[in-house]
Amino acid sequence: MEPAGASSRPAAAPGFFPHWSAADWINRQLLAAVRDWGTGFRSVSAWILNRVILPVEGILQAAPPWAMLLLAGAAAWWGQRRWLPPLLYVAGLYLIGAMGLWDKLMQTFTLVLVATCFSVLIGIPVGVLAARSRALRRVLTPVLDVMQTMPSFVYLIPVLMLFGLGKVPAVLATVVYAVPPLIRLTSLGLRQVDPNVMEAAQAYGVTRWQMLVKVTLPLARPSIMAGINQTTMMALSMVVVASMIGAQGLGEDVLAGIQTLDIGRGLQAGVAIVILAIVMDRISQSYGRSQRRRRRDRKQP
Question: How far apart are CA 288 and CA 17, in angstroms?
Protein backbone atom coordinates (compact mmCIF):
# COMPACT_ATOMS: atom_id res chain seq x y z
CA MET A 1 0.00 0.00 0.00
CA GLU A 2 1.42 3.36 -1.03
CA PRO A 3 1.81 6.07 1.64
CA ALA A 4 -0.61 8.92 1.63
CA GLY A 5 0.27 11.58 -0.87
CA ALA A 6 2.65 9.33 -2.79
CA SER A 7 0.60 9.52 -5.99
CA SER A 8 0.59 13.33 -5.86
CA ARG A 9 4.40 13.62 -5.99
CA PRO A 10 5.61 14.35 -9.53
CA ALA A 11 7.93 11.70 -10.92
CA ALA A 12 10.97 12.58 -12.96
CA ALA A 13 10.32 12.28 -16.67
CA PRO A 14 11.87 9.10 -18.13
CA GLY A 15 15.01 9.90 -20.03
CA PHE A 16 15.23 13.46 -18.71
CA PHE A 17 18.59 12.84 -16.99
CA PRO A 18 21.43 11.27 -18.96
CA HIS A 19 23.20 8.33 -17.34
CA TRP A 20 26.60 9.70 -16.46
CA SER A 21 27.47 7.47 -13.49
CA ALA A 22 31.20 6.86 -13.16
CA ALA A 23 30.85 4.12 -10.53
CA ASP A 24 31.55 1.23 -12.91
CA TRP A 25 34.60 2.93 -14.42
CA ILE A 26 36.01 3.77 -10.96
CA ASN A 27 35.47 0.18 -9.81
CA ARG A 28 37.27 -1.19 -12.86
CA GLN A 29 40.21 1.16 -12.38
CA LEU A 30 40.50 0.36 -8.69
CA LEU A 31 40.34 -3.39 -9.32
CA ALA A 32 43.01 -3.04 -12.00
CA ALA A 33 45.23 -1.11 -9.57
CA VAL A 34 44.77 -3.81 -6.92
CA ARG A 35 45.57 -6.52 -9.45
CA ASP A 36 48.65 -4.80 -10.88
CA TRP A 37 50.12 -3.06 -7.84
CA GLY A 38 48.49 -4.82 -4.89
CA THR A 39 51.68 -6.71 -3.95
CA GLY A 40 53.70 -3.49 -3.86
CA PHE A 41 51.11 -1.70 -1.75
CA ARG A 42 51.02 -4.60 0.70
CA SER A 43 54.83 -4.51 0.96
CA VAL A 44 54.72 -0.80 1.77
CA SER A 45 51.98 -1.50 4.31
CA ALA A 46 54.09 -4.19 5.99
CA TRP A 47 57.12 -1.89 6.11
CA ILE A 48 55.17 0.97 7.71
CA LEU A 49 53.58 -1.41 10.20
CA ASN A 50 56.78 -3.18 11.25
CA ARG A 51 59.19 -0.23 11.10
CA VAL A 52 57.04 2.66 12.31
CA ILE A 53 53.72 1.85 13.96
CA LEU A 54 54.56 -1.26 15.98
CA PRO A 55 57.88 0.11 17.36
CA VAL A 56 56.19 3.36 18.48
CA GLU A 57 53.31 1.43 20.01
CA GLY A 58 55.71 -0.94 21.74
CA ILE A 59 57.64 1.94 23.29
CA LEU A 60 54.49 3.66 24.53
CA GLN A 61 53.01 0.49 25.99
CA ALA A 62 56.30 -0.57 27.58
CA ALA A 63 56.74 2.78 29.30
CA PRO A 64 55.41 2.88 32.88
CA PRO A 65 52.10 4.76 33.13
CA TRP A 66 53.57 7.09 35.76
CA ALA A 67 56.31 8.08 33.30
CA MET A 68 53.78 8.89 30.57
CA LEU A 69 51.72 10.93 33.03
CA LEU A 70 54.84 12.78 34.16
CA LEU A 71 55.82 13.46 30.54
CA ALA A 72 52.35 14.80 29.70
CA GLY A 73 52.38 17.04 32.78
CA ALA A 74 55.87 18.34 32.00
CA ALA A 75 54.93 19.09 28.38
CA ALA A 76 51.82 20.97 29.52
CA TRP A 77 53.72 22.94 32.17
CA TRP A 78 56.49 23.89 29.72
CA GLY A 79 53.94 25.31 27.29
CA GLN A 80 51.73 27.12 29.82
CA ARG A 81 54.03 27.72 32.82
CA ARG A 82 51.10 27.19 35.19
CA TRP A 83 50.48 24.31 37.57
CA LEU A 84 46.72 23.89 37.61
CA PRO A 85 46.11 22.93 33.93
CA PRO A 86 48.87 20.26 33.88
CA LEU A 87 47.48 18.75 37.07
CA LEU A 88 44.02 18.57 35.51
CA TYR A 89 45.40 16.97 32.35
CA VAL A 90 47.30 14.38 34.37
CA ALA A 91 44.18 13.67 36.43
CA GLY A 92 42.16 13.16 33.26
CA LEU A 93 44.69 10.72 31.81
CA TYR A 94 44.87 8.93 35.17
CA LEU A 95 41.08 8.56 35.04
CA ILE A 96 41.39 6.81 31.67
CA GLY A 97 43.82 4.33 33.22
CA ALA A 98 41.48 3.84 36.17
CA MET A 99 38.72 2.87 33.72
CA GLY A 100 40.93 0.07 32.40
CA LEU A 101 41.59 1.76 29.06
CA TRP A 102 45.28 2.61 29.36
CA ASP A 103 46.50 0.10 26.72
CA LYS A 104 43.79 1.20 24.30
CA LEU A 105 44.73 4.81 25.02
CA MET A 106 48.32 4.10 24.00
CA GLN A 107 47.11 2.37 20.81
CA THR A 108 44.97 5.37 19.91
CA PHE A 109 47.74 7.81 20.76
CA THR A 110 50.11 5.82 18.54
CA LEU A 111 47.78 6.11 15.54
CA VAL A 112 47.26 9.83 16.11
CA LEU A 113 50.98 10.46 16.67
CA VAL A 114 52.10 8.55 13.56
CA ALA A 115 49.38 10.10 11.40
CA THR A 116 50.28 13.58 12.66
CA CYS A 117 53.99 13.01 11.98
CA PHE A 118 53.26 11.86 8.43
CA SER A 119 50.97 14.87 7.96
CA VAL A 120 53.73 17.22 9.15
CA LEU A 121 56.26 15.62 6.78
CA ILE A 122 53.83 16.16 3.90
CA GLY A 123 51.97 19.31 4.90
CA ILE A 124 54.79 21.70 5.80
CA PRO A 125 56.88 21.18 2.61
CA VAL A 126 53.76 21.40 0.44
CA GLY A 127 52.67 24.52 2.34
CA VAL A 128 56.09 26.11 1.76
CA LEU A 129 55.87 25.41 -1.97
CA ALA A 130 52.31 26.73 -2.08
CA ALA A 131 53.36 29.94 -0.37
CA ARG A 132 55.96 30.56 -3.06
CA SER A 133 53.88 29.57 -6.10
CA ARG A 134 50.53 31.16 -6.89
CA ALA A 135 49.93 28.61 -9.65
CA LEU A 136 50.41 25.75 -7.19
CA ARG A 137 47.95 27.39 -4.78
CA ARG A 138 45.35 27.60 -7.51
CA VAL A 139 45.77 23.89 -8.21
CA LEU A 140 45.87 22.87 -4.55
CA THR A 141 42.85 24.88 -3.41
CA PRO A 142 40.16 22.72 -5.07
CA VAL A 143 42.07 19.56 -4.19
CA LEU A 144 42.21 20.52 -0.53
CA ASP A 145 38.54 21.51 -0.63
CA VAL A 146 37.64 18.03 -1.85
CA MET A 147 39.89 16.37 0.73
CA GLN A 148 38.26 18.33 3.57
CA THR A 149 34.64 17.98 2.45
CA MET A 150 34.70 14.36 1.28
CA PRO A 151 33.05 12.10 3.90
CA SER A 152 35.75 10.33 5.85
CA PHE A 153 34.16 6.92 5.20
CA VAL A 154 34.90 7.30 1.49
CA TYR A 155 38.66 7.28 2.14
CA LEU A 156 38.40 3.84 3.70
CA ILE A 157 37.23 2.12 0.51
CA PRO A 158 40.29 2.52 -1.78
CA VAL A 159 42.76 2.40 1.10
CA LEU A 160 41.18 -0.81 2.37
CA MET A 161 41.38 -2.47 -1.06
CA LEU A 162 44.98 -1.41 -1.66
CA PHE A 163 46.47 -1.95 1.80
CA GLY A 164 44.11 -4.42 3.46
CA LEU A 165 42.77 -4.36 7.00
CA GLY A 166 44.68 -3.03 9.96
CA LYS A 167 46.47 -0.01 11.32
CA VAL A 168 48.33 1.08 8.19
CA PRO A 169 45.23 1.85 6.07
CA ALA A 170 43.75 3.60 9.10
CA VAL A 171 46.84 5.84 9.37
CA LEU A 172 46.93 6.58 5.63
CA ALA A 173 43.22 7.42 5.49
CA THR A 174 43.71 9.66 8.52
CA VAL A 175 46.60 11.48 6.84
CA VAL A 176 44.52 12.20 3.74
CA TYR A 177 41.73 13.54 5.93
CA ALA A 178 43.89 15.55 8.34
CA VAL A 179 46.68 17.10 6.24
CA PRO A 180 44.73 19.89 4.41
CA PRO A 181 44.55 22.32 7.40
CA LEU A 182 48.31 22.11 7.89
CA ILE A 183 48.99 22.86 4.22
CA ARG A 184 46.60 25.82 4.25
CA LEU A 185 47.85 27.36 7.50
CA THR A 186 51.52 26.85 6.64
CA SER A 187 51.04 28.62 3.33
CA LEU A 188 49.00 31.38 4.98
CA GLY A 189 51.53 31.93 7.75
CA LEU A 190 54.45 32.21 5.34
CA ARG A 191 52.58 34.65 3.09
CA GLN A 192 51.75 36.86 6.07
CA VAL A 193 55.37 37.35 7.13
CA ASP A 194 56.23 41.05 7.21
CA PRO A 195 57.91 41.97 3.88
CA ASN A 196 60.05 44.56 5.68
CA VAL A 197 61.64 41.84 7.77
CA MET A 198 62.38 39.80 4.65
CA GLU A 199 63.90 42.83 2.92
CA ALA A 200 66.12 43.49 5.94
CA ALA A 201 67.27 39.87 5.89
CA GLN A 202 68.00 40.08 2.18
CA ALA A 203 70.08 43.19 2.80
CA TYR A 204 72.38 41.06 4.93
CA GLY A 205 72.85 38.64 2.03
CA VAL A 206 71.04 35.58 3.36
CA THR A 207 70.43 32.70 0.99
CA ARG A 208 66.95 31.40 0.15
CA TRP A 209 67.45 28.45 2.50
CA GLN A 210 68.60 30.72 5.33
CA MET A 211 65.64 33.01 4.65
CA LEU A 212 63.27 30.05 4.98
CA VAL A 213 64.84 28.37 8.01
CA LYS A 214 65.95 31.38 10.04
CA VAL A 215 63.40 34.06 9.12
CA THR A 216 60.10 33.03 7.57
CA LEU A 217 59.48 29.68 9.27
CA PRO A 218 60.16 31.04 12.79
CA LEU A 219 57.89 34.02 12.14
CA ALA A 220 55.16 31.76 10.73
CA ARG A 221 55.45 29.30 13.62
CA PRO A 222 52.19 30.33 15.36
CA SER A 223 50.23 29.66 12.17
CA ILE A 224 52.07 26.39 11.60
CA MET A 225 51.42 25.30 15.17
CA ALA A 226 47.74 26.11 14.68
CA GLY A 227 47.81 23.88 11.60
CA ILE A 228 49.43 21.07 13.56
CA ASN A 229 46.79 21.49 16.24
CA GLN A 230 43.97 21.24 13.70
CA THR A 231 45.61 18.26 12.03
CA THR A 232 45.93 16.48 15.37
CA MET A 233 42.28 17.07 16.22
CA MET A 234 41.13 15.85 12.80
CA ALA A 235 43.34 12.78 13.15
CA LEU A 236 41.78 12.05 16.52
CA SER A 237 38.31 12.44 15.02
CA MET A 238 39.11 9.56 12.66
CA VAL A 239 39.71 7.13 15.54
CA VAL A 240 36.20 5.67 15.57
CA VAL A 241 35.99 5.58 11.77
CA ALA A 242 39.37 3.85 11.51
CA SER A 243 38.23 1.18 13.96
CA MET A 244 35.86 -0.09 11.25
CA ILE A 245 38.85 -1.38 9.24
CA GLY A 246 40.71 -3.05 12.07
CA ALA A 247 42.47 -0.18 13.86
CA GLN A 248 42.60 -0.96 17.55
CA GLY A 249 42.25 1.51 20.36
CA LEU A 250 39.50 3.51 21.99
CA GLY A 251 37.50 3.67 18.78
CA GLU A 252 37.22 -0.11 18.86
CA ASP A 253 35.32 0.09 22.15
CA VAL A 254 33.02 2.79 20.79
CA LEU A 255 32.26 0.65 17.74
CA ALA A 256 31.71 -2.44 19.90
CA GLY A 257 29.37 -0.45 22.13
CA ILE A 258 27.32 0.54 19.09
CA GLN A 259 27.19 -2.98 17.71
CA THR A 260 26.21 -4.62 21.01
CA LEU A 261 24.15 -1.74 22.43
CA ASP A 262 26.57 -1.64 25.37
CA ILE A 263 26.00 1.99 26.27
CA GLY A 264 28.36 1.99 29.22
CA ARG A 265 31.29 0.62 27.25
CA GLY A 266 30.78 3.03 24.37
CA LEU A 267 30.27 6.04 26.64
CA GLN A 268 33.33 5.21 28.71
CA ALA A 269 35.53 4.99 25.61
CA GLY A 270 33.96 8.19 24.28
CA VAL A 271 34.82 10.04 27.48
CA ALA A 272 38.41 8.78 27.17
CA ILE A 273 38.61 10.11 23.60
CA VAL A 274 37.29 13.49 24.77
CA ILE A 275 39.89 13.67 27.55
CA LEU A 276 42.70 12.77 25.16
CA ALA A 277 41.46 15.36 22.66
CA ILE A 278 41.34 18.11 25.31
CA VAL A 279 44.84 17.30 26.58
CA MET A 280 46.39 17.21 23.10
CA ASP A 281 44.54 20.34 22.00
CA ARG A 282 45.52 22.42 25.03
CA ILE A 283 49.16 21.34 24.96
CA SER A 284 49.60 22.02 21.24
CA GLN A 285 47.82 25.38 21.52
CA SER A 286 49.99 26.41 24.44
CA TYR A 287 53.17 26.09 22.39
CA GLY A 288 51.77 28.34 19.66
CA ARG A 289 50.73 30.94 22.24
CA SER A 290 54.04 30.72 24.07
CA GLN A 291 55.91 31.62 20.89
CA ARG A 292 53.74 34.70 20.35
CA ARG A 293 54.16 35.69 24.01
CA ARG A 294 57.95 35.43 23.80
CA ARG A 295 58.03 37.68 20.72
CA ARG A 296 55.85 40.28 22.48
CA ASP A 297 58.18 40.21 25.47
CA ARG A 298 61.20 40.76 23.25
CA LYS A 299 59.52 43.77 21.60
CA GLN A 300 58.78 45.44 24.90
CA PRO A 301 61.53 47.77 26.18
Answer: 52
